[in-house]
């Protein structure tokens, strides 16, 4: 034990910079993983984030106007209360005749401390500015989105003579606005509330309760009802409802992020394992000497294990502490994410799990190499006896004859003459590059959603529908706009045999003017009764392209021939699209030569047109009677993928650099042994440096090529997998541009050449006497 | 330096065989059936041309390599079946090894290098330090305790290696070409030191191709092509003419 | 023996006993002890060859000493001796003769011969080592002589190994 401690202490003293580097690298990896997890939590569960950030209320109780709702704050389980606020119900619309929404106006002078609305656009209410002639209102984000309000807009409210100005949009963790079911929330100053001339039955009171233990929710609701009386309470909502309603389809995102995280961890483990094994390989002679002195193999293994586990623990602890205390100070989203993450419930055990995971990974990597170190023979064999040189291959001789600089040729030979060892080095370096390429692939795929939405089934940015205007008027209005093409469409819910739920049957475009669907297999509907189905639907019906399916719409049967598969992002791909003619064919009782009447028009905008501008123009032109809505684009949800991909690329670059350092060290050591031979051949020190640098560069080049090629293939496969699983369908993957890949490869090779230049130069100039002892 | 142990040969080998099988080349029969006995206090030299397998024999005797067949007894214990771990423990207490290329741990100081086996054997750091100081003084290395091996000359490094091998008062000292990397001055030093320790009773077995070193031993074993060819005790022939020296120095005229 | 004596006389006249002392002091104990009779015989021969000239000196209570002085011819001989190089590989070797002839006799075994010779050389080496240890460290000439002998012995032993290789 003492001997092991003595050796370890001396070893550390002699290799101080390397030890520090390892600890820092481990800390860096830990920090990256912790930050990545924070971002993950931040991105995939926005409701939780908002709830935590705003100190959300677990229970919202809406009562009549005179009810003493404030007494609920005195309950034992209640930690803090938001309100009680006086409320007034009102109907709001941006313009008279525009989309209407029911609002619950809450009067509050200051931003409440509990359930504090998080302002995302504009500002909060200001006592002086928003109580004068123009009254201000802050809208909840869900209702603002539904009626397309933004700061600066004028909101016409029932019960108010003058329109209110929207001064800000805020996120809250309450049940989101749903037309006809849940009113949206708008905050106003109490004076504004007083100015409303709504009837007494529109007045009410709302209080939000933040509990000490979320599990007490039901109990508190019961106590509230008993205390206030069931007749006083108009509505109760809980955080569970809010969470359920807010949860979007984040599974895709969550899965992607999870995959990325695992990939990064795997790459990190490989890198650290490689670094450790390389270091141990550099100490083989010392190990055999130790064994000759009398260290047992078990002792040697335990020494190395303890040493490197110590490094790992130190690095992980350092990384965790830095993240804990300096994380929230980081700029931008990362800082927010870390600050929020600290308050999330999983925060107690998740960082520990991550740290433990890193240590476990490093430990297992070390175990393998330590075990191999234990098997080193105690005989200090001269390493020169190992077969380093064979006869130069015909290729080498020819290359030398062609006057290619000998440094390059020798570097090539040096890099690849031991196929097993060099392929292991190439593989270890290729993994981070492969993952980087996958991340780039994800990025470009998300870009595809925003840059070329028509290729992923989102050709139309807007839909236009009207209840009051008739079809020719609508068509006229649409024709008045220049930068769009309008396709008539209708959508019905259909029943299919064997399914309890309904599927969506859409008719878009006509046979004369077919709608531009993104068809991945087969072809678009060209003739009558032909349809194109989404992946989700094909899976649901267990059908394939070319099958005939039967469905019932409002009692009438439709038989359709599936001639193609399209990429459908709506409704988990359970959509079947045909032309409007086919859809209406089954409807009309009398075959009339009239064109079929559409329910809505899908507006495909010309490239570069701003949907908001078109929407405003159309609304103005139609006087508010044409309802124009934006088609939801999953890219909005997936925008976090870009941030995550960028972060992941940064982490992987770090890991790649660590791998590179290991490879450089190993190459320098291996080539350094041939130093004497190279000098004897007649190479100058500069040429010897060039040999070492080119050897490293070749290995990196091979790794970069392998990594990018495999990465492109893997990225496509993974994204297709995700697409198939989510029902959108395969074929959404977009590989990164060749230029970008070439840049990645060039960067990797340049960095490796640069990183190896200095150690190579130092190795080439080593005194012969040193290199002789280094041989053994 | 002898221990109070049962009498009997310190080393006995019977039928040791070892064949190296390097990859891609023909197998090398390094040791072909060697029988050997070394008594306590003997100074044995094994000579022979390079490549004859002398080093392999030494590695087998020191447990650094495992024989393909044959039996080996060290200090009365049968050791050819020992695992690597048990061999390591045996080496700690009973066998000291000196190599041609010194084989000091490069990032330990001289003091640490010498104390390491003592600490391994279980002695306290203070005791180890005392032993180390004593030995280094004996070998003329006082003042070099904190140097690293890289700062020492070849002769000094070999003396440190000798100190390391002897710090645990081993029953057997094995040396593989101890002066192979040294100049003539260093060789003389090593010889002198070996002779000194031998006089105190240390059993030494060394492998060398240098005749001067071999002649310093009591007993010279000629090793040729994996087998023992001759086993001679030097200085025991009574009929050696005193003028044997002059035979070598014949002058003309 | 002739030329070393001549060379000693270049330094100045001396008589036989002085020359013997000088030789011993110069070469040390490694060199075979010069025989006094042999010295006088050699001196006689040198005188007859007119390389030195002798002169008797009267002594009161002892027989006359003869002091020798070198002549010009002697000086020339010494110069010529220093000029020429000593070159002759040692091909006349009794041991090799024995080794080569052993198979023909059928009674002697080559390996045994080699082993015996090796033991001899090793013992000689041992004695040389002892000599070197006992000889005065500062007598560089003597030490060099001994070292030269050791190197020759090493070469002989290496040659023995070669013989053994070839004959196996």
Walk me through this protein's architecture.
The complex is a heterotrimer of chains A (776), B (253) and C (168). Helix content of chain A is 52%, strand content 17%. Chain A has 776 residues and is of the alpha+beta class. In chain A, the strands form two sheets. In chain A, strands 11, 12, 13, 14, 15, 16, 17, 18, 19 and 20 form a ten-stranded mixed β-sheet that branches. In chain A, a hairpin with a 6-residue loop joins strand 2 (78-93) and strand 3. Chain B is of the alpha/beta class. Helices cover 33% and strands 24% of the residues of chain B. In chain B, the strands form two sheets. Chain B has a six-stranded mixed β-sheet. In chain B, a hairpin with a 7-residue loop joins strand 1 and strand 2 (28-38). The radius of gyration of chain B is 19 Å and the shape is globular. Chain B starts with 10 loop residues before the first strand and ends in a 5-residue tail after the last helix. The relative contact order of chain B is 0.18. By secondary structure, chain C is mostly helical. Chain C is 66% helix and 8% strand. Chain C is built from seven helices and three strands. Chain C has a three-stranded antiparallel β-sheet with strand order 1-3-2. In chain C, strand 2 and strand 3 form a beta hairpin. The longest helix of chain C has 28 residues, at 140-167. The two termini of chain C are 42 Å apart. The model of chain C has no long low-confidence stretch (mean pLDDT 81). Chains in contact: A-B, B-C. At the B-C interface, helix 7, strand 9, strand 10 and helix 8 of B face helix 6 and helix 7 of C. Chain C: This is PadR family transcriptional regulator. Chain C: It holds the Pfam family PadR.
Per DSSP, what share of the residues of chain B sits in E-state strands of 2 or more residues? 15-25%
User: What's the number of extended β-strand segments of chain B?
Assistant: 10
Tell me the major beta sheet of chain B. Answer: 6 strands, mixed
Mean pLDDT of chain B: 84
Mean pLDDT of chain A: 80
Tell me the quaternary state. heterotrimer
CATH homologous superfamily of chain B, by name? P-loop containing nucleotide triphosphate hydrolases
Helix content of chain A: 40-55%
CATH topology-level fold name of chain B: Rossmann fold
Q: With helices defined by DSSP (H or I, 4 residues minimum), what is the helix count of chain A?
A: 24
Instruction: Write down how many β-strands of chain A occur, each being a DSSP E stretch of 2 or more residues.
Output: 20
Whole-number tally of structural domains of chain A = 4
Low-pLDDT runs of 5+ residues of chain B are 1-5, 237-253
> How are the strands of the largest sheet of chain B arranged?
6-7-8-3-9-10
Q: What share of the residues of chain B lie within helices?
A: 25-40%
- Shape type of chain A: globular
Strand content of chain A: 15-25%
Protein name (chain C): PadR family transcriptional regulator
Domain Transcription regulator PadR N-terminal (chain C): 5-78
Domain Transcription regulator PadR C-terminal (chain C): 91-168
């Amino acid at each position: 034990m003492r001997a092991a401690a003595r050796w370890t202490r001396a070893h550390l003293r002699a290799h101080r910079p390397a030890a520090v580097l390892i600890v820092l690298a481990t800390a860096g990896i830990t920090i990256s993983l912790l930050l990545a997890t924070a971002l993950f939590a931040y991105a995939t569960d926005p409701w939780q984030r908002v709830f935590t950030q705003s100190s959300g209320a677990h229970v919202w109780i809406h009562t009549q106007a005179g009810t003493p709702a404030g007494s609920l704050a005195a309950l034992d389980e209640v930690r803090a209360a938001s309100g009680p606020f006086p409320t007034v119900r009102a109907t709001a619309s941006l313009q008279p005749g525009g989309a209407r929404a029911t609002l619950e106006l809450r009067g509050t002078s200051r931003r409440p401390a509990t359930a504090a609305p998080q302002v995302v656009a504009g500002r909060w209410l200001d006592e002086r500015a928003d109580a004068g002639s123009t009254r201000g209102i802050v809208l909840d984000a869900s209702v603002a989105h539904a009626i397309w309000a933004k700061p600066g807009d004028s909101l016409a409210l029932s019960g108010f003579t003058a329109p209110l100005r929207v001064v800000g949009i805020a996120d809250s963790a309450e049940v989101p606005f749903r037309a006809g079911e849940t009113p949206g929330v708008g905050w106003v100053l109490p004076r504004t509330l007083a100015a409303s001339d709504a009837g007494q039955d529109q007045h009410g009171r709302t209080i939000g309760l933040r509990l000490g233990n979320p599990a007490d929710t039901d109990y508190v609701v019961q106590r509230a009802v008993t205390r206030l009386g069931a007749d006083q309470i108009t509505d109760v909502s809980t955080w569970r409802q809010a969470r359920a309603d807010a949860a979007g389809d984040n599974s895709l995102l969550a899965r992607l992020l999870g995959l990325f995280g695992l990939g990064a961890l795997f790459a990190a483990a490989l890198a650290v394992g490689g670094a450790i094994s390389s270091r141990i390989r550099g100490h083989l002679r010392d190990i055999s000497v130790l064994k000759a002195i009398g260290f047992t193999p078990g002792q040697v293994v335990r020494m190395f294990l303890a040493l490197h586990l110590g490094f790992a623990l130190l690095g992980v602890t350092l990384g965790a502490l830095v993240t804990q205390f300096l994380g929230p100070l980081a700029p931008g989203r990362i800082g927010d994410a870390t600050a929020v993450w600290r308050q999330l419930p999983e925060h107690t055990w998740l960082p520990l799990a991550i740290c433990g995971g890193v240590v476990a990974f490093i430990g297992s990597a070390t175990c393998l190499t330590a075990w191999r170190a234990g098997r080193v023979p105690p005989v200090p064999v001269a390493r020169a006896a190992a077969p380093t040189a064979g006869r130069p291959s015909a290729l080498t001789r020819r290359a030398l004859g062609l006057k290619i600089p000998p440094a390059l040729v020798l570097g090539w030979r040096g890099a690849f003459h031991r196929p097993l060892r060099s392929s292991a080095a190439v593989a270890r370096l290729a993994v981070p590059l492969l993952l980087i390429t996958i991340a780039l692939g994800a990025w470009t795929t998300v870009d595809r959603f925003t840059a070329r939405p028509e290729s992923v089934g989102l050709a139309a940015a807007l839909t236009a529908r009207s209840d009051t205007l008739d079809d020719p008027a609508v068509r006229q209005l649409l024709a008045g706009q220049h930068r769009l093409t309008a396709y008539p469409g209708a959508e019905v819910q259909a029943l299919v045999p064997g399914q309890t739920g309904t599927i969506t049957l859409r008719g878009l475009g006509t046979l004369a003017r077919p709608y531009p669907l993104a068809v991945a297999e087969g072809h678009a509907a060209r003739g009558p009764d032909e349809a194109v189905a989404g992946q989700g639907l094909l899976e649901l019906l267990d059908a394939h392209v070319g099958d005939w399916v039967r469905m019932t719409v409002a009692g009438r049967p439709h038989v359709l021939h599936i001639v193609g598969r399209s990429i459908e992002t709506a409704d988990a791909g359970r959509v079947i699209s045909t032309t409007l003619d086919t859809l209406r064919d089954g409807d009309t009782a009398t075959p009339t030569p009239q064109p079929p009447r559409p329910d809505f028009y899908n507006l495909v905008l010309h490239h570069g047109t701003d949907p908001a501008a078109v929407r405003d123009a159309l609304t103005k032109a139609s006087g508010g009677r044409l309802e124009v809505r934006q088609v939801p684009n999953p890219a909005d949800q997936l925008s976090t993928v870009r941030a995550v991909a960028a972060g992941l690329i940064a982490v992987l670059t770090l890991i790649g650099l660590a791998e590179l350092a290991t490879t450089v060290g190993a190459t320098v050591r291996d080539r350094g042994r041939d130093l004497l031979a190279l000098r004897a051949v007649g190479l100058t020190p500069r040429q010897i440096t060039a040999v070492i640098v080119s050897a490293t560069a070749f290995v990196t080049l091979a790794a970069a090529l392998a990594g990018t090629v495999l990465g492109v293939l893997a990225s496509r496969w993974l994204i297709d997998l995700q697409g198939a699983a989510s029902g959108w369908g395969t074929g959404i993957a977009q590989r990164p541009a060749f230029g970008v890949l070439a840049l990645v490869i060039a960067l990797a090779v340049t960095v490796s050449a640069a990183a190896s230049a200095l150690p190579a130069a130092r190795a080439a100039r080593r005194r012969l006497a040193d290199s002789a002892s280094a041989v053994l | 330096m002898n221990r109070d142990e049962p009498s009997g040969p310190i080393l006995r080998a019977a039928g040791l065989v070892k064949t190296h099988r390097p990859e891609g080349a023909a197998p090398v029969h390094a040791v072909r059936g060697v029988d050997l006995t070394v008594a306590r206090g003997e100074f044995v030299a094994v000579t022979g041309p390079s490549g004859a397998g002398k080093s392999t024999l030494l590695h087998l005797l020191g447990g650094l390599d495992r024989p393909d067949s044959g039996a080996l007894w060290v200090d009365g214990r049968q050791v050819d079946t020992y695992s690597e771990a048990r061999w390591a423990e045996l080496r700690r207490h009973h066998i000291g090894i000196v190599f041609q290329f010194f084989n000091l741990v490069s990032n330990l100081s001289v003091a640490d290098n010498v104390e390491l086996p003592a600490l391994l054997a279980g002695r306290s750091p203070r005791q180890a330090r005392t032993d180390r100081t004593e030995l280094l003084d004996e070998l003329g290395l006082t003042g070099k305790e904190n140097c690293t091996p890289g700062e020492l000359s070849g002769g000094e490094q070999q003396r440190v290696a000798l100190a390391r091998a002897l710090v645990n008062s081993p029953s057997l000292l094995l040396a593989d070409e101890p002066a192979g990397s040294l100049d003539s001055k260093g060789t003389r030093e090593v010889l002198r030191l070996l002779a000194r320790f031998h006089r105190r009773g240390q059993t030494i077995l060394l492998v060398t191709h240098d005749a001067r070193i071999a002649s310093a031993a009591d007993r010279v074993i000629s090793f040729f092509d994996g087998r023992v060819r001759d086993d001679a005790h030097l200085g025991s022939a009574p009929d050696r003419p005193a003028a044997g020296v002059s035979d070598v120095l014949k002058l003309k005229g | 023996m002739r030329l070393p004596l001549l060379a000693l006389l270049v330094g100045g006249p001396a008589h036989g006993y002085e020359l013997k002392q000088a030789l011993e002091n110069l070469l040390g104990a490694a060199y075979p002890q010069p025989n006094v009779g042999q010295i006088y015989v050699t001196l006689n021969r040198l005188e007859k060859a007119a390389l030195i000239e002798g002169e008797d000196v009267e002594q009161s209570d002892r027989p006359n000493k003869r002091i020798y002085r070198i002549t010009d011819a002697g000086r020339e001989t010494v110069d010529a001796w220093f000029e020429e190089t000593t070159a002759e590989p040692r091909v006349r070797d009794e041991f090799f003769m024995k080794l080569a002839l052993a198979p023909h006799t059928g009674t002697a075994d080559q390996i045994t011969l080699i082993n015996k010779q090796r033991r001899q050389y090793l013992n000689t080496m041992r004695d040389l080592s002892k000599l070197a240890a006992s000889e005065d460290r500062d007598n560089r000439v003597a030490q060099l002589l001994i070292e030269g002998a050791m190197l020759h012995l090493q070469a002989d032993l290496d040659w023995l190994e070669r013989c053994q290789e070839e004959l196996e």
